[in-house]
User: Which sequence fits this backbone?
C-alpha cells in the first residue's frame, strides 16, 4: 500500500463560527506472509492524532508532536500532566493511578542507576519499564462514560492515540542489544511502517537457542566440556527383561546396551528378551547396582518366619479329625456328640463331604471336629484332614473289624505324626467283639493302653451314647499333653476345608482358622481366589463378628471357589491379593500346559494307532472335594487301552458353556448333587448331550467303569467242535472240488472255521462254505456220519487230509 492509494482527510469549515474535523482514518489491505508459502490478506486501519492551536494570525494551525525528553521525574511529569489539555478530562482516580506508575518508574530508575547490573538483559528490561511508564504518562487515555466538552464524541475519540508504538519516544526504541549479524525477533504485530514498506518477516533464532549458545560459550570459557556426575542406580532385574526396558531402568541409551551385549557375544535387538544373569552382567558393566527379583516374590508378604512371642500365645480348641471305614458310624458318633443328625441328610447314608463342627462341652471347653468320608474315593479328603488336625479319632465298627479304609486312615495319621484315639463303635450290637479289634490294631503298630501300649482305645456306642464322655475326656487329655496355643492378636491364616458355589450366595467357603483372628471385611487370598470377607457364619448358622484360632467358619465373598486344602491368608489390601492370585493362576495354567504336552513316545504311538481310547467327561459337583474325589477315582481305571479324560471340572450347576463343550467333544457330563440350568437343559436335549445325575459316588464309579469296559476290544475265544477225515475228493464243474468226509470226532457245523491239516501240519485256515449230506444242505453233522464239505477260496485238498472245525466266540472284557 502506498501514499497515492490512501485517502487523505482535510480540515474543513462546515458552518460559520464552528470548527469541525472529518475522520482521520487511513485504511488499506496488506498481504501477510507466513511460513511454508502461506499468505493472508489483512485490512489495516491507522488512526492519527492531530493537535491544533491558534496561530499568530488568529487561525488554527496543526501542532507537530515533539520527541520525549531525555530524562524525567515525577514532579516534572506531574506538572506536564496538569498543563496538558487532554489530562484535564481524566477522573481523579485515573490521575492517581498515573502518578503511582510514575513514582514506581522513578524508583526503578534510581535503583538501576545506583546498582548497575552487568547483564544486558536486566538493563534492557529496566530501561523498557521506564520507557513504557514515560510513554504511558505522556499519552492521554479516553475518559470512559463521559463526553468531552465542546467536542462531539467521534472527534474526542480521534484525539486519543491507538498505536502506542508510533507515539513512543524514539529513545525507547531499540534498547535490546543484539549480537553481530542477528536481527530483532518479530513481535508478532503488523505495523503500518512494515505494511507500507512491504517488509517480509523472516524466521529468527529462538530465545532457547540463544540461551543454549550462551551456556555453551560460558562452558568453553571455563575450560572446555564439563562431564556430568554419574548417578549410580539400583536396577531391579526380573527373570526375563527386554533390552530396551533394561536400558530405560539404567537411564542409558539402548544402543550402548546392545554394544555391551555384542561384546558378550550376543547379537540381539532392542525388543528381544535376555535372561536375568545376562542382565546382571550388563548392569555391572554400566556401574549400577542390581537387585534380582522373581515373579514369585509377590508371595513374600505371606511368609511367616517370625517366632511367636510366648507371652502372646493363648490356648486354643483342639482340632480333631474323625476317620475310618465307610459305614462304621463316624458321622453318627459325631452327631451324638453334637446332639444333631447329619448322617440322615447324606445321600445313601454315607458322608461325602468334609464337615467342620465345634462342640461346646459342659465345662466351657470347645473341641473342633472334622468329619471325613470313609469311601475309598475320598482318599485326598482323608489325607487333607490328617494334615490339618491335632488329634485323629479312628472309628472301627466292633462287628466289622479293620477294613481297607481303616488301614489307609492309620497310614495317614502316622504320616501326619498326630496322636490316635481309637473309638470302637457299635459295641451295643450283637456279635460285637472289641477284644478282636484290639488284637488286630496291634498288627498296625497301635498297642492299646491295657496291653501296655500308648494308644487310647474307648468302647462307645453312637446309638445309645455309651462311654461318649470317656471319649471326650480322652481327647481333652491328649490336647492337654500337646499344649495347643496360638496368637489371636495377629493377621489370620488357616486352611480351606471345603468350597462350593451357591446360586444365591455365590462362593461359599468353609475354612479353619489356625492363627490370628479373622474378621468381617478382611481381604483374604486363598489359592487362586481372593476377595473381601462379607460375612462369617458358624456351623450352627449364626453370624459371627470374628473367628478365633481353632474355629471353623463359613465365609462369603471370594472371587472363585478355591481348591480344598489351599492355605488362606489375610493381606493388607486388594492390590496385593489380586497380584498373588493372578500369579498363582498363571502358575496353575503353566502346570496344566506342561502336563498336556505330548511326549515323543505318545506321538509315535498316535502315528502307529496304539494310543488308548479316551472317554471324555465333564465333572460338575456341589463342592470342590467331591470334584477332586470323582476325578481321582476315575483316573484309577485308566489303562493302556482305555482312559478317562476329564475335559473340565468345576463347582456349581451345569451351564450352557458346559453343554457346548460336551457337544463339540462328545463328552459325557457327570452332575454330582447339582442340576442343569433351564437353558442348558434345553440345549442338551436339542443337541442330544448325555447328562447323568448322581448323588452317591460309587454309582458314578460303576457307570464310568461300565462305559470303559464297553470301549475295550472283546477277547476272542476259540471253541473246538470236531474232526473230519477226507475219504474222497470230487471235482464238480459248477461247485469246484468237494471233499467227501467222515466225521471222526465231535460235530461239524455249517459256516464254522476250519483248518486243513496235512501230515499234522496246518496248511490252510478258512471258513467252511458248504456242508451237505447226500444232496441236501444241513446245519450240522455229528460224529460217525458222512458228509460233503467245500472251502471258501481254497481247493487244494487231498485224500487223507484232516479237517479241524472250531468256532470263535467274542468275550466282553471289563476294566
Assistant:
Amino acid at each position: 500500500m502506498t501514499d497515492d492509494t490512501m485517502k487523505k482527510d482535510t480540515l474543513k469549515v462546515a458552518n460559520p463560527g464552528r470548527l469541525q474535523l472529518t475522520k482521520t482514518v487511513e485504511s488499506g489491505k496488506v498481504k501477510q506472509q507466513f511460513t511454508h508459502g502461506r499468505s493472508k490478506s489483512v485490512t489495516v486501519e491507522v488512526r492519527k492524532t492531530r493537535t491544533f492551536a491558534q496561530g499568530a494570525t488568529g487561525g488554527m494551525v496543526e501542532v507537530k508532536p515533539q520527541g520525549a525528553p531525555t530524562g524525567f521525574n515525577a514532579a516534572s511529569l506531574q506538572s506536564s500532566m496538569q498543563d496538558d489539555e487532554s489530562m484535564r478530562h481524566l477522573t481523579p482516580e485515573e490521575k492517581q493511578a498515573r502518578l503511582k506508575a510514575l513514582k514506581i518508574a522513578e524508583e526503578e530508575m534510581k535503583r538501576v542507576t545506583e546498582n548497575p547490573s552487568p547483564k544486558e538483559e536486566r538493563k534492557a528490561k529496566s530501561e523498557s519499564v521506564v520507557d513504557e511508564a514515560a510513554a504511558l504518562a505522556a499519552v492521554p487515555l479516553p475518559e470512559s462514560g463521559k463526553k468531552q466538552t465542546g467536542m462531539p464524541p467521534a472527534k474526542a475519540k480521534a484525539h486519543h492515540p491507538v498505536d502506542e508504538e508510533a507515539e513512543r519516544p524514539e529513545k525507547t526504541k531499540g534498547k535490546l542489544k543484539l549480537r553481530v549479524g542477528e536481527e530483532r525477533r518479530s513481535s508478532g504485530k503488523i505495523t503500518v511502517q512494515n505494511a507500507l514498506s512491504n517488509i517480509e518477516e523472516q524466521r529468527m533464532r529462538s530465545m532457547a537457542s540463544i540461551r543454549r549458545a550462551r551456556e555453551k560459550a560460558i562452558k568453553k570459557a571455563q575450560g572446555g566440556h564439563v562431564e556430568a556426575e554419574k548417578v549410580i542406580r539400583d536396577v531391579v532385574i526380573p527373570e526375563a527383561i527386554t533390552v530396551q526396558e533394561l536400558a530405560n531402568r539404567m537411564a542409558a541409551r539402548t544402543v550402548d546396551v546392545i554394544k555391551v551385549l555384542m561384546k558378550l557375544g550376543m547379537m540381539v535387538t532392542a525388543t528381544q528378551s535376555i535372561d536375568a544373569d545376562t542382565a546382571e552382567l550388563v548392569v555391572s558393566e554400566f556401574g549400577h547396582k542390581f537387585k534380582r527379583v522373581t515373579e514369585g516374590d509377590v508371595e513374600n508378604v505371606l511368609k511367616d518366619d517370625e517366632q511367636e512371642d510366648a507371652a502372646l500365645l493363648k490356648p486354643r480348641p483342639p482340632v480333631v479329625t474323625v476317620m475310618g471305614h465307610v459305614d462304621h458310624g463316624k458321622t453318627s458318633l459325631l452327631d451324638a456328640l453334637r446332639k444333631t443328625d447329619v448322617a440322615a441328610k447324606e445321600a445313601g447314608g454315607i458322608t461325602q463331604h468334609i464337615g467342620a463342627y465345634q462342640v461346646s462341652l459342659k465345662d466351657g471347653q470347645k473341641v473342633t471336629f472334622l468329619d471325613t468320608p470313609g469311601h475309598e474315593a475320598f482318599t485326598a479328603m482323608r489325607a487333607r484332614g490328617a494334615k490339618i488336625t491335632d488329634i485323629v479319632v479312628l472309628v472301627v465298627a466292633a462287628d466289622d473289624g479293620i477294613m481297607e479304609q481303616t488301614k489307609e486312615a492309620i497310614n495317614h495319621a502316622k504320616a501326619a505324626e498326630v496322636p490316635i484315639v481309637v473309638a470302637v463303635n457299635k459295641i451295643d450290637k450283637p456279635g460285637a467283639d472289641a477284644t478282636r479289634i484290639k488284637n488286630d490294631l496291634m498288627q498296625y503298630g497301635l498297642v492299646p493302653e491295657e496291653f501296655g501300649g500308648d494308644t487310647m482305645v474307648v468302647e462307645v456306642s453312637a446309638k445309645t451314647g455309651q462311654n461318649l464322655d470317656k471319649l471326650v475326656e480322652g481327647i481333652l487329655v491328649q490336647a492337654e499333653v500337646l499344649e495347643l496355643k496360638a496368637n489371636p492378636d495377629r493377621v489370620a491364616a488357616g486352611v480351606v476345608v471345603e468350597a462350593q458355589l451357591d446360586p444365591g450366595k455365590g462362593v461359599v467357603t468353609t475354612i479353619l482358622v489356625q492363627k490370628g483372628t479373622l474378621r468381617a471385611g478382611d481381604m483374604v487370598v486363598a489359592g487362586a481366589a481372593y476377595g473381601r470377607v462379607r460375612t462369617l457364619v458358624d456351623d450352627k448358622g449364626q453370624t459371627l463378628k470374628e473367628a478365633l484360632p481353632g474355629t471353623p467358619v463359613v465365609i462369603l465373598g471370594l472371587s472363585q471357589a478355591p481348591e480344598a486344602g489351599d492355605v488362606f491368608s489375610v493381606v493388607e489390601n486388594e492390590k496385593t491379593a489380586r497380584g498373588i492370585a493372578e500369579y498363582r493362576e498363571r502358575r496353575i495354567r503353566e502346570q496344566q500346559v506342561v502336563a498336556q504336552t505330548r511326549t515323543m513316545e505318545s506321538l509315535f504311538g498316535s502315528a502307529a494307532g496304539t494310543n488308548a481310547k479316551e472317554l471324555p467327561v465333564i465333572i460338575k459337583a456341589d463342592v470342590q472335594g467331591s470334584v477332586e474325589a470323582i476325578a481321582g477315582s476315575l483316573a484309577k481305571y485308566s489303562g493302556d487301552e482305555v482312559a478317562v479324560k476329564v475335559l473340565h471340572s468345576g463347582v456349581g450347576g451345569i451351564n450352557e458353556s458346559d453343554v457346548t463343550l460336551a457337544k463339540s467333544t462328545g463328552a459325557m457330563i457327570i452332575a454330582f448333587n447339582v442340576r442343569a440350568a433351564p437353558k442348558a437343559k434345553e440345549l442338551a436335549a436339542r443337541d442330544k448331550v448325555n447328562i447323568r445325575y448322581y448323588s452317591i459316588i460309587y454309582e458314578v464309579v460303576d457307570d464310568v467303569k461300565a462305559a470303559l469296559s464297553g470301549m475295550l476290544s472283546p477277547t476272542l475265544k476259540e471253541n473246538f467242535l470236531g474232526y473230519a477225515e477226507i475219504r474222497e475228493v470230487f471235482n464238480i464243474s459248477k461247485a469246484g472240488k468237494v471233499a467227501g468226509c467222515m466225521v471222526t470226532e465231535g460235530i461239524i457245523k455249517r459256516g464254522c472255521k476250519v483248518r486243513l491239516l496235512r501230515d499234522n501240519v496246518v496248511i490252510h485256515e478258512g471258513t467252511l462254505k458248504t456242508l451237505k449230506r447226500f444232496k441236501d444242505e444241513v446245519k450240522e453233522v455229528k460224529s460217525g456220519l458222512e458228509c460233503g464239505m467245500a472251502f471258501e477260496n481254497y481247493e487244494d485238498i487231498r485224500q487223507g487230509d484232516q479237517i479241524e472245525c472250531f468256532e470263535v466266540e467274542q468275550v466282553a472284557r471289563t476294566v
